[in-house]
Design a protein that fits this description.
Layout: E1 2-6, H1 11-22, E2 27-32, H2 38-42, E3 47-50, H3 57-64, E4 69-72, H4 82-103, E5 107-111, H5 118-123, H6 129-144, E6 148-154, E7 156-158, E8 165-169, E9 176-178, H7 179-191, E10 198-204, E11 207-208, H8 209-214
Parallel strand pairs: 1-2, 1-4, 2-3, 4-5, 5-6, 6-10, 7-9
Antiparallel strand pairs: 8-10, 8-11
Helix pairs in contact: 1-7, 3-4, 4-6
Length: 216
């Protein structure tokens, strides 16, 4: 299975491409927006597509035309304004969903926020609410699509070394999880069709990732 990693130059995206390339079942195609970002992925023997997520649907669909799955890991980041949150976390996600449909790609895995339900928007701090709202509507768009989707809701992201062990489910207490382990969860989702049509939260825990994902 070849997977297009959207947002490949992000912290989770880089880990994901690395783990995919180490998998015997998967191969990665990295979507990045700058030529100078190519070397990291070329060193992993990953195919690279040059597409800015703010381009049109056709540009993203062209990158997805020869893949079997799309993984959306892109994010505007904590230091941008509400405009980029809308353009990347909401519109970028929606365009990628539509591009997958246009390219005939059924499998779609989405990295979301820990809780994107309506109440979470109301409860979020003023500075964080636009991000939660963007993720809420992006998730809604994906659920309403005819794609074979999985939505992953990670806890507070850290750069700690991954443990390979998590807790997965819904209505979990908010806690931390390393970006490395999030990337490994994404690989497990791609490798396990039982995750199709499901969404779940993940935080640090004591269950091996493959087991935790398989038990959903």
């Amino acid at each position: 299975m070849k997977a297009l990693v959207v947002g490949a130059n992000g912290q989770i995206g880089k880990h994901l491409v690395t783990y995919i390339q180490e998998s015997e079942k998967l191969e990665a195609k990295a979507m990045v927006r700058k030529k100078e970002q190519f070397p990291f992925f070329e060193e992993k023997n990953a195919e690279v597509a040059l597409v800015d997520l703010e381009e049109d649907i056709d540009s993203i669909a062209k990158a997805a035309k020869d893949v079997d799955a799309v993984v959306f890991t892109a994010g505007s980041g904590p230091h941008t304004g509400k405009d980029k949150t809308i353009m990347i976390d909401l519109d970028g996600a929606v365009k990628t969903i539509e591009a997958a449909k246009k390219a005939g790609v059924k499998r779609f895995v989405m990295i979301s926020s820990f809780d994107t339900r309506r109440q979470a928007i109301q409860d979020a701090p003023e500075s964080f609410a636009p991000y939660v709202a963007a993720k809420h509507y992006a998730d809604e768009w994906l659920r309403a699509s005819d794609l074979d989707y999985t939505i992953v809701h990670p806890g507070l992201l850290t750069n700690d070394e991954g443990t390979g062990q998590i807790t997965a489910g819904m209505d979990l207490d908010a806690s931390e999880i390393s970006r490395e382990d999030v990337a490994k969860v994404l690989v497990a989702c791609l490798e396990n069709d039982k995750t199709i049509g499901k969404e779940f939260q993940i935080v640090n825990g004591n269950t091996a990732i493959e087991e935790a994902v398989g038990d959903l």
